[in-house]
Structure formats: C-alpha cells, structure tokens
Amino acid sequence: MKVPGLIDLQVNGYKGVDFSGDDLTENTFAAACREMLKSGATGFLATMITSSDATYAHNLPIMAKVINSNEFRGRVLGIHLEGPFISPVEGARGAHNPAWIRPPDIRYFKKLVDLAEGAVKLVTIAAELDGAAELAAFATENGIAVSLGHQAATVCDLQRLADAGARALTHLGNGVPLVLPRHDNPIFAGLAVDELAAMMITDGQHLPPAVLKTFIRTKGIEKCIVTSDATALSGMPPGEYQNLGNKVILDKTGRIYNPKTGFLVGSSATMLDCMNHLASLNLVDFDALVSMGFHNPLKLIGIQPSQLAAGPQVQFDEEQLRLYMSESAQ
After folding, report:
1. CA pair distance 187, 145, nearest whole angstrom
2. Which phi and psi (to 5°) does residue 227 adopt?
3. Tens of pLDDT, residues 246-302
C-alpha cells in the first residue's frame, strides 16, 4: 500500500548538516535537502531553531535561494522558524540557547521574514509571553502559520493565541520541563484547546505508545500531524557527536541524548521512520495515517497537494506494514 506522499514540517538538518549551523553553505544545504527528499519525504519545511542575529543573517538567505531554485521548488516547501520567541525557562526552552531567546517582537519577526525572502511558512512561539497574541495575529494575516511550543502556557494562554490565529502545537509532549504540575500544565492545556492541532514526534523515542494513543483519541485524526524533528544527526551512524555545543550520544536504537542529563536532543528519525513506527502501533487505520502524514501538515501551512512538484509515492517499510496489517486483521 502506498501513500500520496509524506510532508514533514520540522527538519532541523540531515546527514551532518545543521540548518542552524554557522557553517551552512548553499552546497551543504542543497545536498542535505536532496538526501532528505530521497529518504521518503515528498516535501518538508527546513527548520531553524533559535539563533544569533549573525546566524539568521547568514543562513536564511542561503536557505531561501536554494528553496526557490528550480530543483527544490514544490519539494522544500519553506522555512519553519522554531523560535526565537519562546520561553527562556529551563526545560521549556529545550536545547535552545537562552542567550538568543527573545520576547515576541513583530519588527524583528518581519526582519527574519525579509531575510528569508518570504519563504517562512511556519513559526513556533510560546503562548504565555507578552506580545505573543499580537505576533500570532500579524503572522496569520501575512499567510504564515503559527504553532505554539517551548512554553509554560496555561489553557487561557493557548485559547488567547488560538483566538489570535494560532493553529497548532509544536511537538506536543516535548519541549516541556521534566516535572510539571499535575493538572495545570501545557500538555493538558494543549489537548483542551480544540482549535490547535497536535504535531507529534512519532519516532519511538519522544512519546510512548500510550501517550500517542491519548493524543490521537483526544484531538481526533484531523487535528494530528506527524513530524520527525530530524536533526543533523539523522542518517548518521551511532557514535559520539557535538550538537548545539554539547556532547551527545547517538545510540544503536536511534536515541540522541545528552550523556550528562540523559535528555533527548532532537531526533535521528526521518518522516518515513516516524510513519512506520506509528503504523506498527496499530492505533489508527491506513486512511488516518495518510491524513496525519500528508493532508493535515499541508493544510496547516496552506499548501494544496496540486502545488507540490511531482515526487514518488511512498511505500511503508514492508516489515512494519506487514505487522500493521496483520494486527489490523485480528
């Protein structure tokens, strides 16, 4: 069984190339995009996490030039800015450098959009910050989808942002402190706000099956989006690496973690890996998988399937699909 394609809204890098790295070039970015498109992604958003002024000024024009080239038009669908308008609180900020985190600032956001030559399609911000609603409204008015993440938001914060135009939650269940209040926390709050779709990293490392089941049952298929959160270590062999200025371990299971804290540092999975894992859990039927991995992400960023450049249909991994179909028949 084949799907019309897979759309990944969060690709931070691939095969040793970090899209937020100071050493990014047109050649390395294009090479990483080329390899990512061979890995099973029909289209994706290249993601920059919270970065310095100099890195934004260097990387965004490079990314825009490659994205707008004939080779990648309709396949690399734009840029996802994950930050810099996120929570500076430890845990909520994740691996983002606190020195570069900023309060919501429409003027600075417009500067980033201009550097990217209009290629920004999605921005992740923290809902509880002063000015977040105004930024969300501005982005929405300018055709840029708004997702909420790396935050310590309440249900009131999230509803206020949804009313301002926000429509998703970035990697729900991750990018939060290890210890949360029992009831009043960003995960339950995100599940409660019906307007917000849940982006979920289904790589088998970030969210256990019971959590994925709860998210899908609560949000419904039309409000769930699979994403990989792939990093520069995706497609690399197991070993010890430097990532975001820290020593990290990529082990044989695909888990990337900081050995000092044990915390995850992004994903080593591709979108196809994530879809295979979700299929193997037997939580949803085949049509739902197609919705979560293809139609829903396109809908969030306002792109029609007809706008995609021609690409191959995607076949799920034979072993995983056989397991999925076998369990579905029981």
Report:
1. 20
2. -140, 160
3. 789 999 999 999 898 888 888 999 999 999 999 999 999 999 999 999 999 999 999
Cα–Cα dist 166/180, whole Å: 23
Distance of CA 5 to the CA centre of its chain: 17
By CB neighbour count within 10 A (0-12 exposed, 13-18 middle, 19+ buried), where does 221 fall? middle
Which secondary-structure segment (H or E) carries 273? helix 271-280
The contacts of residue 99 (CB under 8 Å, 6+ apart) are: 52
Here the tokens at position 310 are 């021609």
- Backbone φ and ψ for 160, nearest 5 degrees, come out as -60, -40
The domains located in the chain, with CATH, are 2-329 (3.20.20.140)
Q: What is the mean pLDDT of residues 150-158?
A: 97
202, 208, 212, 217: CA torsion to nearest 10: 170
- The Cα–Cα gap between 199 and 215 comes to 10
Q: Are strands 224-227 and 17-18 parallel, antiparallel or unpaired?
A: unpaired
Look-up: residue for tokens 């792109």? 303
Nearest alpha carbon to residue 10 among 269, 205, 241: 269
